[in-house]
Amino acid sequence: MPKQTLFKAIEEHGDAQALILTNCTYDGLRYDLPPIIQAAHAKGMKVIIDEAWYGFARFHPAFRPTALEAGADYATQSTHKVMSAFSQSSMIHVNDPDFNEHLFREIFNMHTSTSPQYSMIASLDVARKQIVLEGYKLLSRTLELAKELRAQINSTGAFRVLELSDLLPDEIKQDNVQLDPTKVTVDISRCGFTIEELIHELFERFNIQVEKSTFNTLTLLLTIGTTRSKVSRLYDAMMRIARENRAPQRLYQTAEIPRFTELKYLPRDAFYCGGELMPLLDEQDKVNSNLNGRVSADQITPYPPGIPVLVPGQMITQGITQYLISMLRSQKRIEVHGIVYDGYLPCLRLLTTAEEKSLTKLDKL
Ligand SMILES: Cc1ncc(COP(=O)(O)O)c(C=O)c1O
Q1: Residue 27 CB–ligand 1 contact under 6 Å
Q2: What spacing in Å lies between the alpha carbon of 53 and ligand 1's midpoint?
Q3: Cα 236 to ligand 1 centroid, rounded to whole Å
Q4: What is the pLDDT of residues 178-210, one digit of tens each?
Q5: 3-state secondary structure of 261
Q6: Which residue among 82, 141, 251, 338 is buried most deeply as judged by most CB within 10 Å?
């Protein structure tokens, strides 16, 4: 998000309680956090940074400043993603001068189990100890391997690693955004495979699982667990694929995520309505136009990218229905959370006319 957009939003919504940003992103883009945090603090907002992919950053100067070092009040880290804790084990780091520990614990206890999993807690402690004692050495190795891998991938001729300037849209070019070099995004458009074919090839022939892709890129993450032999295996696979010398194929861009429409009712009110089901497709297998203008009772989120296309209380448009259908028909493995299946028929849960009448519209609240 452009810095100016953030500054403008902070200025225009001075009554907001918190600013929440992801830093760094899955593809390694890092905001220039200090001025953004300062602007939010000047308006009395707390700053919460989602550092899911950046928990290791404190332990090597190449990755600093971390969110807390930049002044954020809270940082959430998926310790299991990029360090060595068990799956689901994560941390919330607190730097808020107004932190109310009692309130925090009460709210935490409302949402958590009364049966702690001590193996997960112990794994967090092991991950902490490892990164404190060996983090610098391990991260130096990871950085070295990332540098080598970037050069190796470019040497294949068929694949190209995207640099920061390739990744940044024009409106963000002046924002002092940086790239975490351990996240490597590769342009595959000249390799002669579609992304689906390439993912299949890497998995079936080379036993390599790709985690993130777009229609013309794949993103590789190197972590403290990456070894030279793993990097060599990947390079070897890409080199073999490149040597097949296939003619580039035409790649089809996946549909753009539709923009937010209108929030008619509070999400909580809409979610707790019983609602009614309506199919996404009509009898001719076309976009069901009866959905236009209706209000969703559920949150509908395609994974990937994991960005909600509808939230409860939001108005549905033809563009949204079209997008959801294209996701369901896509060749890629996309799960669409929130869709209700009536037998084999994908449906949305909508507010009934009577329910809409019984709720207070947001613009009247
Ligand atoms: C940016 C971001 N934040 C948070 C999460 C969820 O984190 P966790 O797995 O620790 O619940 C993810 C998971 O992929 C993520 O990508």
Answers
A1: no
A2: 8
A3: 31
A4: 999 999 999 999 999 999 899 999 999 999 988
A5: coil
A6: 82
Specify whether the CB–CB gap between 350 and 297 falls below 8 A: yes
Task: Let me know if the fold of 135-243 is the same as that of 267-364.
Answer: no
C-beta of 78 in contact with ligand 1 (< 6 A)? yes
Q: Which of 75, 94, 258, 61 is nearest to 178 (CA)?
A: 61
pTM: 0.87
* pLDDT tens track for 7-41: 999 999 999 999 999 999 999 999 999 999 999 99
The 8-class DSSP code of residue 362 comes to G
Ligand 1 centroid, distance to 28 Cα (angstroms): 14
Task: Give the orientation angle of helix 3-12 with respect to helix 33-42, to 10 degrees.
Answer: 10
User: Are the CB atoms for 351 and 294 separated by under 8 Å?
Assistant: yes
* CATH class in words for 135-243: alpha beta
- The pLDDT tens digits for 147-161 are 999 999 999 999 999
User: Yes or no: is domain 267-364 CATH 3.90.100.10?
Assistant: yes
Ligand 1 close to Cβ of residue 77 (< 6 A): no
Residue 255 carries which DSSP code? P
- Dihedral pair phi/psi, residue 187, rounded to 5°: -80, 125
| Amino acid found at 56 | F
The C-alpha atoms of residue 45 and residue 118 are separated, in whole angstroms, by 35
Residue 121 has pLDDT above 90, yes or no: yes
- Cβ contact 348:339 at 8 Å: yes
Give me the residue spans of the domains in the chain.
Answer: 3-125, 135-243, 267-364
Residue 340: Cβ-neighbour burial (10 angstroms; 0-12, 13-18, 19+): middle
List, in sequence order, every residue forming a beta bridge with 219; answer none if it has no partner: 185, 212
